[in-house]
Amino acid sequence: MLNSLNQFRNLPETTRVWCAHEYTLNNLKFALTVDADNRDLQDRFQEVTVARSQNQATIPSNIGLEKRTNPFLRWDIPSLQSAVNSHDPIQTFARLRGMKDQF
After folding, report:
1. Rounded to whole angstroms, how far apart are CA atoms 17 and 3?
2. Average confidence (pLDDT) per 10 residues, the chain, 103 residues
3. The pTM is what?
């Protein structure tokens, strides 16, 4: 899975990302539990909270925004590695995924 997501990270920043369901707000709530100091994430959370309160869609996104705010594309960021107590990219990703499964 890490290899597949890494292919997304290598796409141009303006590449649009469409998911099948409106999970953005819940995903951002989780992301803040492991990456609370991320200013881009904080800003995105505020924007999405407003959009969803007005019943607006938050998709599509783009790779650039996802790379700045999605913990599953940021397994090599030291603050996220510290949040899961690992410096190994695969283990960091796996621990993040496990935490999200329990969220």
Report:
1. 17
2. 92 93 94 97 98 95 97 95 95 96 94
3. 0.91
